Amino acid sequence: MSYTAILILGIALSIDACIASFSYGLKYDKEKLKNSFLLASFTGIFQGFMPCIGYYLTSLVKEYIQPYTSSIVFLIFTYLGIKFIIESSDKKKANNLCIDLKCLFLIGIATSIDAFSAGISISLTGSSIFIPALIIAIITFVNSTIGFYLGNKIKDLNTQLLEIFAGLLLILLAFKSVY
Do 140 and 10 form a contact (C-beta atoms < 8 A)? Predict the structure, then answer.
């Protein structure tokens, strides 16, 4: 697999993480550096790790896991999207959003299911996995950080509408995983 192909793959795979981080950037004022770093770290690590799993477990994935990946992503993103929409009108819970360890794992998994499949593709091409996984992880980390700060910068518009929009984006990602 060429480096150009790996870069394009890394950018494509990082879009979900960037959108999820953008959505969270709309909500978080406090501890921006910590929260953006946590989101970027979890999404980057999962994006780098999941292709390795797919790469090494290609035969198992096709038979047992592959049929359910879109359903898993759909459920996670739908849950997060609905949560964003509901919390957009609840000002009391505005500072008590889901950025705990459980949610970070869910975001990491949901944004990296495609990377799992990419690992299968990389395996089938006969390429090594280490360099592609590292590049994918770095690109995702950077794009996730950018997404968080972009969301944080434009949130001074109508926050409730942007939060609903962010929730809808997450739900659209859910439907993208099924179709």
Answer: yes
In terms of residue numbers, what domain contains 32?
3-178
* Number of domains into which the chain is organized: 1
Read off the DSSP letter of residue 93. Answer: G
Q: pLDDT by residue (tens digit) across 129-177? A: 999 999 999 999 999 999 999 988 886 665 567 677 767 877 887 787 6
> Per residue in 85-112, pLDDT tens?
887 776 554 444 578 888 899 889 988 8
Q: What six digits make up the tokens of 9?
A: 């793959």
pTM recorded for the entire structure: 0.73
| 101 HSE (CA, 13 A, CB side) | 0
3-state secondary structure of 126: coil
Look-up of token digits 């990377």: 115
